[in-house]
Design a protein that fits this description.
The protein is an all-alpha fold and 291 residues long. The chain has helices at 2-34, 41-59, 61-82, 92-114, 140-162, 164-174, 176-181, 187-208, 218-233, 238-258, 263-277; strands at residues 130-133, 136-139.
């Protein structure tokens, strides 16, 4: 029975880690290729959650899964084209300040359109209830989340490792000067990376809105954890961010159940240990700024 309880907490931690993964991966990719710390990343997550609430009311949850990330991805094109692109070669602090300001603007716009009170969001009826496997009680909705995140991550891995697009992006992370010498412009690839990053953040908002709280500051609340995951995993490493997100989720999920007071601190202890013994992160690579 004790093992069943521990396994269930590990499963809950994996769900929590998948939540962190959808947010953190886009943040890591944007910084790795563009050299910009995107503090507005959480704002796209919040927009995805709010858009999902509105779409679900009119067309159902299935439509929200598709429409919300697509709509936020289109906003990502405008974000990259008119704001982010100006700061690829600028002082990094300028991009940080810009995206911080944008995050504050988006939060206030959300308050203006939807109000400061949390919006009601619930799990679709078809996914409510547990799946019983022996002594284990696993939520149908959480199993759906794990399946969706697995499929999304498999698709992104394939894109980055098995296509010409991915080869250019990885080369742009490692040696942007060599990519430029070959006559390849990285800007169109950067636009695609930004769209991919903010769309996955919006997808996280769609799926985790029903089991969290859809409120204006939700984007800011998740950003600290996302940075912790990115630093632990290592900048420029897809596998590192995946490993770090799942590790942080499991460590935090298990700790909260056994030592509730230490749940929040556990991920910062993990971050401290990684920075002491592996400053680049678990699977971090040496990267150069986008040019």
């Amino acid at each position: 029975m004790q093992f069943a309880f521990l396994f269930q907490q590990v499963m809950n931690g994996l769900v929590l880690g998948s939540y962190y993964l959808l947010i953190s991966l886009g943040l890591s990719l944007i910084f790795s290729v563009g050299g910009v710390v995107n503090l507005a990343h959480g704002a796209f997550y919040a927009l995805g959650a709010y858009a999902a609430v509105e779409i679900t009311r009119r067309f159902g949850f299935g439509a929200a899964i598709i429409i919300s990330p697509l709509a936020v991805g289109l906003l990502g094109i405008l974000f990259e084209r008119f704001l982010l692109r100006r700061f690829y070669t600028a002082d990094p602090i300028l991009g940080l300040l810009l995206t911080f300001a944008l995050a504050m603007v988006v939060e206030q716009l959300i308050r203006m359109f939807w109000g400061a009170a949390p919006l009601p969001s619930s799990i679709p009826a078809v996914f409510k209830g547990p799946v019983v496997v022996g002594d284990l009680f696993l939520s149908r909705y959480r199993l759906l989340l794990l399946a969706v995140v697995f499929l999304v991550m498999a698709g992104i891995w394939w894109l980055l490792n098995k296509t010409s697009f991915g080869r250019v992006v990885r080369a742009g992370v490692q040696r942007p000067d060599m990519v430029a010498a070959l006559g390849i412009r990285l800007q169109p690839y950067m636009t695609a990376i930004v769209v991919l990053g903010v769309a996955t953040a919006a997808l996280a908002g769609v799926f985790f809105g029903p089991i969290s709280v859809v409120q204006p500051a939700m984007g800011n609340d998740i950003m600290t954890i996302a940075f912790v995951v990115v630093v632990i995993g290592g900048l420029g490493s897809f596998s590192g961010v995946v490993l770090a997100a799942l590790l942080v989720g499991v460590v935090r999920g298990v700790t909260i159940n056994y030592y509730p007071a230490a749940g929040e601190a556990s991920m910062y202890v993990l971050l401290f240990l990684v920075l002491i013994f592996r400053p680049r992160g678990l699977l971090g690579e040496r990267i150069e700024r986008f040019e």
